[in-house]
Prior knowledge:
Blueprint: E1 5-12, E2 18-24, E3 31-35, H1 46-52, E4 57-61, H2 80-93, E5 99-104, H3 105-117, E6 122-128, H4 133-142, H5 144-149, H6 151-157, H7 161-179, H8 190-201, H9 205-213, E7 242-247, E8 268-273, H10 280-283, H11 285-296
Helix pairs in contact: 1-11, 2-3, 6-9
Amino acid sequence: MPAAIQENQFAALPNGICLHYASAGERGKPLILFVHGFPEFWYEWEAQLAEFGTDHFAVAPDLRGFNLSDMPADLSAYKAKHIVDDLRLLAAQLEYKKFLMVAHDWGGAIAWNFAIALPELLHRLIIINAPHPYLFMQALASEPEQQAASQYMNWLRAEGSEDKLAKDDFAQLEGLLSGMGKSPTPWFTEDVRARYHACWSRGLTGGVNYYRASPLHPPTESNSGPLKLQLNPADFRVKVPIRVIWGEQDIALPKGLLDGLDKLVDDLKVERIAEGSHWVVHEQPGRVNAIIRRFLNE
């Protein structure tokens, strides 16, 4: 029997940020933190909360800038280190010293940073379609295919992108949910659409500020982005056990981003879903749950 999901819970963190979160299961059971991406919110993980709340304390926050969580006005508040700190403080407030994390898209980008900076807090990390930051930096700096696939990031970074996303009843955002896959989106039902529209109506600036605050984007004449970064791969080594689920039809994040990952992660397993798009969490929730379950039972 699926676990019941409780919404409208808020954590006032010591750093001044208040995060909204949904949860399923009993506090005290092993914590599994689900971290969403853009343009989503905690509801991305509805099927996972219902499944893993049966034997874990499953928690899915709205990241800062999204939905019911605080939306700081300062652009610098959206640097990855601050969102990593939000997740650290949330787990501490829930009274957990170590936990599991599952993360997708921007949530995955934050989770990679979390695992690199705070490995002692994670039992393991499960990544879904989110590239390791060092490999993504290299691809954005030198690979024309990735630069072309990521041009949408520069569009989102531009001034006024949130207004364009909201235009015509969020037509652009709905296109993003289908345009990053190669198939229709039957999962985006009227009920799900209403949920997402309610979230987006609360504000989009926080979400696009993740792109604006990041140096990882295709280089332009006015902003060299990854070209100005001098990074040492040794600083990006991951000592936490990493399990990856990758929908191979992701057109924004091609499967080639997995190449070389084994050289940066001490303990790695990858499960590829050949027909899955960037939105594989929605497309095949049962299969994703089964893979996560298998990874947790190792």
